[in-house]
Write the structure tokens for this entry.
Amino acid sequence: MTDSVNTSHQLPSDVNYPWHKDTWSNFVNAKNQDHLPHAILLAGEEGIGKLKLAKRMAKSLLCMNTTADNKEACQQCVSCKTYHSSSNPDYLEIRLLEDKKQIGVDQIRALSEFLTFSRSYNTHRVVIINPVERMNLNAANSLLKSLEEPTPETIIILVTAKVSDLLATIKSRCQLLTVKTPTKDETIHWLEQNQATNNGAKIDAETLFAMVGSRPLKAEAITQEDIENKQNFFNDLSAVMNQSLSISDMAKKWEKHDFERLINWQLYVVQNAIKKPIGANVNTMEEGEIITQVSQHLNSEEHWHLYQNLIKQKQYIHTSVNPLMFLENMIMLWMKAGK
Ligand SMILES: [Zn+2]
């Protein structure tokens, strides 16, 4: 995801998501008391705006004239202006390069070099690394050195949705700041206010929630076609469970789809099935049929088992070398659970 370039004189104000409130307060308190750590590990689910929050923090640290009440960046000083024109000399963002699956050691070496420069007009120097769990081992070891010998007035913000994938030695040198996942009500409320239209077609907030769960920012990319895809996916899964479609045919059909999205749909369905008493009437959503089917076939222990196995499967999305085998294993989880 790239930031759009702002060409007008009016700088955009920072996005302020209601579910970020507590994390922001913790940050502002630490800043006011001069207790900011050298490294912040900003952790939370995908699709809840962690990177936007990290950037809001970075701008607040770089700004020469933050607002008195909430320490927001002023959007007017030379530091804010250079930030928005991607030329602030005291700011560095390390991200996945295009077509790369990992953050490499060269990128972290650039960080070490950056830390040797003297600061210009800013009070702080800020580095954001996102997603930090995608550093390869050499990069992680190189970062460790920078964390072990902190540079004064420098704050490194590590952004991750997978704290458990990080080296313990890195985690122990950061202060963990967790970003809350919005509740279902908060998500739906926000979607109603902000996501009234998707690519011109109105999709209601409940339907979007069924697609993305409590990851409201993922809703931007949802189209009518995605909703139809989801319906087809569960129809196929039903067909496999009824033995009118083979596992390998289903795998071939879904090979080109976003695996993370496929797994998230299933997690949502299984989660809902867990909550339904056996034989309960399920609402009109397209996955209603499969939820009923799952509810009838599985006891609560089997639901949990399937749920946990899907979570495990999700961890292999980026490391799996054979997409077809990945999908077949994923579908097999349902067959095993249904036995
Ligand atoms: Zn400013």
Remarks:
- The pocket of zinc ion is lined by residues 63-65, 73-74, 76-77, 79-80 (CB under 6 Å).
- Residues 1-8 have pLDDT under 50 and may be disordered.
